[in-house]
Predict the structure.
Amino acid sequence: MNCWKCGHRAETIERIGFHAHCPQCDRPLHVCRNCALYDPAYNNQCRETMAERVVDKERLNFCEYFAPSAATGAAASRPPPERAARERLDALFKKKP
């Protein structure tokens, strides 16, 4: 599983503990953004209809339906959206010599 924030590959065996953190950026791993059921197109951004509503998708939660996302390939190697946006802004407004 890759960290939702920095993209670092976090080795997982079966389950992610509620208090597991990314070894690189120290963000929690048991968050909606790292879940295989996370989908912004669905109600409450979750494909599991029985899951309790989680307001902040980037904070630690205790959802029992959590399943580690298997993002690999191009999706896994993409930089996080925040970093990509920052790079585009920096390129747009960089100072010319």
